[in-house]
Amino acid sequence: MSQGKLLYAQSGGVTAVINATACAVIETARAAKVPVLAARNGILGALREELIDTTKESRSAIAALRHTPGGAFGSCRYKLKSLEQDRARYERLIEVFRAHDIRMFLYNGGNDSADTTLKLAQVSRELGYPLRVVGVPKTVDNDLAVTDCCPGFGSVAKYTAVAVAEASLDVESMYDTSTKVFILEVMGRHAGWIAAAAGLAARADGDPPHLILFPEVPFDEAGFLARVQATVERVGYCTVVASEGLKNRDGAFLSEAGTRDAFGHAQLGGVAPYLADLVRDRLGYKYHWALPDYLQRSARHLASRTDVEQAYAVGKAAVEYALAGHSGVMPVIVRTSDTPYRWKIEPAPLAKIANREKKLPKSFIRRDGYGITAAARRYLEPLIRGEAPPPYAKDGLPAYVRLKNVAVPRKLAQGFAG
Do 150 and 137 contact (CB within 8 A), yes or no? Predict the structure, then answer.
């Protein structure tokens, strides 16, 4: 019996290296002579029967995905509910899979995607359709359970540490007559992994960032202002890195905008300007703040080589697991040694990953709550190690690839409504 086709989809916020995973999926499947379809815009593409035929892409185009940021097939923020609540959508997915002889489904995403993947694995069994479902890890937030780290995090960590070091040199040059306080806001709704990575910029005591504000540590306004003032008086300036998910003592986000995204998460409005206003109103210092936003997760030119290698490895393993008959699992990264840094890939049950969130351990946060510990540095440093620059074109810009994304002809008469 034919092993059928493999469907790959990307979900949630994309990263600098998610396409390296896509590259691995397609190259590994091609080596096994398995046709790969891709869903346009994540699970929505599967529901809408908007599928892409990756066999129409050249070997060189697929290889170029390894150094191209963004999501080559489009992504989405769309969460399926339980089988009882969303039965029609699950049945629609199985209908699309059956029509296109899709026997393997790989969903590349973070926490909410792991939940969707687990539910689909369960539903396919309940509905009697032979489908091997494998989750593929990805998230810049680094908050997936079980895996030592998440593909996408190492590169945003490297970008953040470099940005802090470079911007601080700029501020240091000008603080006598200009900016005294610089505030960088980084991603991280509930987990302070990216904020912690900024601490890697401090190679010696007193180096910036001088203050790191973690979502795991309730914000103390008076303590913060006292620290800023003391740092400016001692050093001449103060670099602050703040997580977007910073909360007050009551557990409320400092910068909640009052709206929610498609996953039901609160939209966060801007911690940096909030903190800057405090500095201006209470201390009177001249300040600047920056919000790298998408820049931090899309900076492929500054990607970590370790991150690229791990992103490729989980994609390759995901295909191998599906071909071997595994379902309801995710390839995870297992650290086997800090010095020298060594790691391997192992399968883990999605049931142990979905709906769980890995926050920054207390042992990684300095006792005063404003910096990282030696343990955090030992964990973080190997993840940003190595460079993997993209090739550059004659015009001086990176030579990124855009796929043709040829649509697969529809086989179902009825479209997806919703």
Answer: yes
Q: Which segments within 31-159 are labelled E, that is strand?
A: 36-39, 51-53, 102-109, 132-137
134, β-bridge pairs: 106, 329
Domains and CATH numbers, the chain: 5-139+301-356 (3.40.50.450), 153-299 (3.40.50.460)
Rounded CA-CA distance 136/117 in Å is 9
In the three-class reduction of DSSP (H, G, I as helix; E, B as strand; rest coil), residue 88 is classed as helix
141 is an active site residue: yes
Q: Can you spell out the DSSP letters for 22-62?
A: HHHHHHHHHHTT--EEEETTTHHHHHHT-EEEGGGS-HHHH
Phi, psi (degrees; rounded to nearest 5) at 325: 100, 5
Residue 166 in contact with residue 195, Cβ under 8 Å?
no
Q: Are 377 and 9 in contact (CB under 8 A)?
A: no
- Residues paired with residue 381 on neighbouring β-strands, in sequence order: none
Q: How many residues does the chain have?
A: 418
pTM: 0.95
Active-site hit among 112, 141, 143, 307: 141
What gap in Å lies between CA 196 and CA 370, rounded to an integer? 10
Q: Which amino acid is at 378?
A: R
What digits encode the pLDDT tens for the residues 274-332? 999 999 999 999 999 999 999 999 999 999 999 999 999 999 999 999 999 999 999 99
3-state DSSP helix/strand/coil % of the chain, to nearest 5 = 40, 20, 40
Nearest to 10 by CA among 241, 319, 21: 21
* Under-70 pLDDT residues of the chain: 1-2, 256-269, 417-418
Tell me how many degrees the CA angle 161-163-165 measures, rounded to the nearest 5.
70
